């Protein structure tokens, strides 16, 4: 209920400025891209001599002066501008050609000046700057001391300073004091290089993931270590697989060849035996009987 009268007063104060409200959400600019700070106002063709000023806090960054003959004089810092037909359309939006982290969290206001009089701000906008980080890289440092493993997570090119967190096996937070994170703003671009170090005592097959969260961009970038076998391990297991397949095939061929050879030998033997046994059947039969007679006794002694 408090908002409505406040808004009404503001509207009166700014002569029906459409973008009234200091408390409005900030405009988000992406580093390197143009940003528009919107400000709409009723057309100003009825004024005689007047000028407008966009100020960053109290420093003028853009000024335009129209006189009664329709001439216009403009002045600006860093090539910021407004549409040239602004007084006709009422679109006084300020365009910054390229967002830079040094503009972050600044407040811009538009003023109308006529003679010696100055209006209340017609529009006040705050500007937030952000840039995406690169997908982080996680690697393991090879230290064999104390059974502890050290993992490093690195990313760069983002803004503002992100939140970094680690998870072990996709769910467990690392113990207190095991993470050290360092963010470094590069001098020219103001973009951040970020390196986080996790030192823990965990089994070798545990999965470790590093997430870089940039709330301004509504972005979360995660990289894992140990989730999928790394290329070297993959090649090794691939090699093992090929080796065992080849081994299986070779063994199978040898077994088949052996069986075939055995069958072949058996056939030859049978033929030979037949040829040999034909005349001596009687003798072999007697031997067989003798063997059968012995068998039961053997079984009994065994049991
Ligand atoms: C408008 O400005 C011009 C010069 O900038 C001046 O000569 C003229 O008198 C001004 N007119 C009014 C109404 O103030
Ligand atoms: C105001 O001007 C800007 C820049 O020319 C344009 O992008 C924007 O759409 C305009 N807004 C309206 C409401 O016309
Ligand atoms: C400035 O404002 C005063 C009072 O608000 C008004 O009397 C005067 O005419 C205005 N001057 C101009 C140049 O608009
Ligand atoms: C880690 O520290 C935080 C606050 O610093 C505390 O709330 C939390 O209980 C601690 N966790 C462990 C496991 O010690
Ligand atoms: C920041 O990170 C980039 C990419 O990893 C790297 O090339 C550069 O050297 C780093 N700069 C500093 C100052 O650490
Ligand atoms: C994580 O998982 C691995 C294998 O699934 C297991 O050996 C290890 O104990 C787990 N680590 C923790 C800290 O839970």
UniProtKB/TrEMBL annotation:
InterPro entries: BTN3A2-like_Ig-C, Ig-like_dom, Ig-like_dom_sf, Ig-like_fold, T-cell_Activation_Regulation. It is found in: Cell membrane. GO terms for biological process: cell surface receptor signaling pathway; cellular response to lipopolysaccharide; immune response; negative regulation of T cell proliferation; positive regulation of T cell proliferation; T cell costimulation. Residues 1-21 form the signal peptide. GO terms for cellular component: external side of plasma membrane. CDD domains: IgC1. Residues 136-222 form the Ig-like domain. Keywords: Cell membrane, Disulfide bond, Glycoprotein, Immunoglobulin domain, Membrane, Receptor, Signal, Transmembrane, Transmembrane helix. It comes from the Eukaryota. It is a single-pass type I membrane protein. Pfam families: C2-set_3. SUPFAM superfamilies: Immunoglobulin. The chain crosses the membrane at residues 240-263. This is Ig-like domain-containing protein. It comes from Crenichthys baileyi (White River springfish).
